[in-house]
Amino acid sequence: MNSGIDLQGSFIQILVDLGLTAEVARVAWLPLPMLLVLVGATLGVLVTTWLERKISAAAQQRIGPEFAGPLGMLIPIADGLKLLVKEDIIPAKADSLLFTLGPAIVVIPVFLSFLIVPFGQNLLITDLGIGIFLWISLSSIAPIGLLMAGYASNNKYSLLGGLRAAAQSISYEIPLALSVVAIAMMSNSLSTIDIVQQQSGYGILGWNVWRQPIGFLIFWIAALAECERLPFDLPEAEEELVAGYQTEYAGIKFGLFYLGSYVNLVLSSLFVSVLYLGGWNFIIPIEVMADWIGVSETTPWLQVITGSLGIIMTLLKAYLLVFLAILLRWTLPRVRIDQLLDLGWKFLLPVSLVNLLLTAALKLTFPVAFGG
Amino acid sequence: MNLADGVQIVSFGVLALMMLGAALGVVLLENIVYSAFLLGGVFISIAGLYILLNAGFVAAAQVLIYVGAVNVLILFGIMLVNKRQNFVPLRNAWVGKTTTALVCLGLFALLGAMVLSTPWAISTAPVAGDTSTVVIGLHFFSDFLLPFELASVLLLMALIGAIVLARREFLPDALEREQTQQPVLTLPERPRELASATPSSPDRTLGTSSTKRNV
Description:
- The complex is a heterodimer.
- Chain A contains 16 helices and no strands.
- Chain A is mostly helical.
- In chain A, helix 8 packs parallel to helix 16 and helix 11 runs antiparallel to helix 16.
- In chain A, 45% of the residues are buried.
- The N and C termini of chain B lie far apart (63 Å).
- Chain B is mainly alpha-helical.
- Chain B is built from 8 helices and no strands.
- Helices cover 69% and strands 0% of the residues of chain B.
- At the A-B interface, helix 2, helix 6, helix 7 and helix 8 of A face helix 2 and helix 3 of B.
């Protein structure tokens, strides 16, 4: 496999050629990926909120936002600006320190998880050895922020919502992690790059979704529950809890929760596409297509096309899953809290354990197909 | 000193200060909820120290288990148990306090002596880095097999115990009788006093809730 595009190396090389020392060039590179993560994730959320409005409207046979920009595309920006300039209210008897800290603790880990989302062979922030495990451990911090928000609001609906959110997220973390373990077992690595690498080569036939259909379903259900999307949006069930832990929040602090939940949705979709749908791989492998037209794999223009195609494919797969999530929101009724916990502990947990055992057995029996 | 060393030293200082400050807060603060949240801060700082020591996997495991599971369970425990009880000032409280101080000082002296007397040999082997998961796995199934298996048996016992407690097939009669007389459970919520609300109305809670609906 060729190394492909190395943006960091080229950037540092350009600065060194301009007369800077290598160390300064490296420092100049440092803020760029951080900025990219923030801007990329926020842009992803803007697109997702617009999609949510448009698809919801289509599901209910409405038109949806139309007048703000072409096809109402400026609606998310208007939304964001409104939340930014709105008055930021802290309730009189709330615990103002924890009240302010809560949204930040929910949002920061979600943004940090973008470090390991790969868009191509070298198109990711860092290729950590622990890869996907970092995401699992970071996503386990969020319940603390939710409990904090729920407690600090000094409101019984907030407290109930926070407790529900934490209960839900720790119960669905386990099936989620177990289905990831099955994938890691097949790819012999936790690194997201290796996981995608192991699915490439046979085009659409090599994707993990064919080898791990049960794991795929479990992961998707658990990811929806982690994102608190319908049918699992119990922590903010408006008929019962006003808005759950968000009840007392206004302005930019509410905006942070809103942003965090949508970033989490995009992130989970990205991880489903990385783990099960072949990540940046096209339906037909690029190398095969290059062979057909007789171009070497290391040709610069082909590498640029491969890189762009990788980004487009990853985003396309992720947004297809976002579309599915929004469609599910308008087709499924909300489950009750006891049904939610029953589903998590009594159904998904045993099934994911069986899936893990099955994967191990298949790996021993057919090492060719299941990564021996 | 190059950049990487500087960053390392500064982050070590920040993490150490954070950890000590948060740990003191856990012990000294009156509000138990603050203590529980600060405990999460202690765990996060320890994870940061692991990262500084090139042990990324251990750091992630620390966050997952201590912050994501242990600390959340502690918070759950605090928030679900709603027992309001005034502290009765104890007589001769100083006896307990002095004993605690003595025990703590003794423990500190013991650990300090251990730290000072151990010849800390810094390993010259190359840092495992990203392959550390493989190394840890190999150790678990060779020379650390017994502790590993003992820990899993312990976890299994805890699991079975939790299931037995949750199923409650055996309920003594006395417990059932007690349960019927318990007062209605209420959630902790401090009474609200809104500045703009009418000060003279006696049924303030009812009034505010109805005005909120109308607005």
